[in-house]
Amino acid sequence: MSITYLEAIREAQAHALRDDSRVFIYGQDVGAFGGAFKATKNLAKEYPGRVIDAPISEDAMMGLAVGAAIEGMRPIIEMQFADFSTVGFNQIVNQAATLFWRTNVPCPITVRLPFGGTSGSGPFHSQSLETIYAHYPGLVVMTPATVEDAYSMLLEAVAIDDPVIFCEHKFLYYHLKAEKLPSEALPVGKARIAREGRDLTIVAYSAMVHEALEAATELVAEGWEIEVVDLRTVKPLDTDTVMASVARTGRLLCVGEAWPWGGVTAEVIARVASEGFGLLDVPPQRLNAKDTPIPYHPNLWTAHRPTARAVAAAARKLLRL
Amino acid sequence: MLQTVLNPDPVSDAVSVRDRHLTAYRYMLLARLLDEKFASLYRAGKIHGGVFIARGQEALSVSIGLSLKKSDVFAPLIRDTAGRLAFGETVIDAVRTYLGSTLGPMRGRDGNVHRGRPREGYLPMISHLGAMISVVNGTLFARRLKGVTGMVGATCIGDGGTATGAFHEALNQAAIEKLPLVLIIANNHYAYSTPNDREFACRDLTDRAVGYGAEAQSVDGTDLSACLKVVGGAVARARAGNGPQMVVATLLRLCGHGEHDTADYVDPKLKNSPVGRDCLKVAEEFLFRQKWTDAGELAALRGEIVREIEAAVAQVQREPVPDPFTEDWLAISSRHLSETHVETNPA
Questions:
Q1: What distances in angstroms separate CA A224 from CA A310, A318, B5, B232, one per listed residue?
Q2: What's the pTM value of the predicted model, to 2 decimals?
């Protein structure tokens, strides 16, 4: 018996609906159809009236969530694809993210963003938007990389009194599997050492953790021991764990699937450079997607986003410095 | 004698009609004088940022404030001083927000018309037009999930705000869910400086409701009696389960967009037309014609209101303002999830 990343997300929502009558799910096709990715499969039947189809109106979906949160509910909003959340961007960053600070009334909303690239999905079904949401004060941004984290962090997202942007990677939906759901988890906001090493720290999150781990495995044959840090949440960003790892290795490579300009990887490097400059033996490096829209054809797509091979190449370069 | 108990139900007999008008007039005058005080404080340099007043829109605004119950939801917009007060906002809350007192609901973190008490169903607007409608939808949706019945949620917008995508998405959403939403549109003919013919091409803004399956009424926004009747009717229909209701009022903003704006773009022909009448004056004349009050009573009322406003301003001017050194600078309520990284070393 194994459970996929996607099933873990469904199970976490079932768990939240079962345990908390304030929880409801609102999004396009989430009802009887069970969602575009089936993340809400059968939930409308199991929890009548609480898993509700929304019109194609991301702005109004988010506005409704804010109103419901004010009334003490805990809405889960499913954006069909992270890319479409930009239509609801105003309500997320200006309404949900400012409410607590302005009024002292918390705004517990979970916005699920199926994000990241899958082959053939093209410019509008592949985006990674964690950076742009992390930029705004008032939001927590989660980027689980494992089945266990997808489950436990989604439960945590619903329990938190603040708006959470829950970035669930579509590439991990089906192929990532675990034996069972976790009974305990690292606290949200803490990064995890996904693999211990002594020569180089690779900081990654979400799907890039797996590319980094694969690269680390590849580099073992060449005698390198790579440490991989999984950020888990990009906001708050666990600078301490990153810094402690860099203190051990003296080298830092930061990998993200989002675009390069001012991204999460830039933030990590800025923090390490300003707070831990003396820990670095060589200049820190980063690896991101290319600075173009996300291409459709697999030949272009695999070259656009960082892959294990690209991560290994960047790591080799850094290790030779 | 003019301070009557709010009666949220549709008026039936002559006494309640009289009381309702007198109550409405009192809030209109209070709003007008409070706005004038803010404008004067602005000119004296006592207010940070802009001042946005509602001169000419009081009759419409007070009608929605008075038609709601305290247990309803209200998301006012920029020109709803009267509606806010009639819904239950205190003068001191308004003054504290404009002057940035930490004792006010916004604690100096937000100002002017961006004020509210969400826990009391009084939602604080953001500046992005149309954005409050779906938030009202959400409060009604949540209350329905909780089994609450008989509630109404109202929100206000201008002619320009009807051109936003948020407006369309939210009205469509309210109609799909058959929510008891009342949408008050003040067509004051100018979105800041932009006239109607650059904002919409439909014959009338009420036409918009038809496309969504919502009901719509027009009203002369300068006529208090008409506003009380039409807005009150819309609220009653929403409460009775007839789905979203739209009211489009025709009027003219008798001031600039903000106090910084001289509004010389306003067509003089409009100013001199019935649309340009001052609703406060029209209401006053109506009260006199009905012999429900007289000039002496209104002068006394004015004096009483001025004293109330002056007392509030005097009090708030002695209140604490925000201190950046004691501010926690934390935008989320989950303290354990705050960012620990310090941008620069203060040492």
A1: 16, 12, 80, 76
A2: 0.96
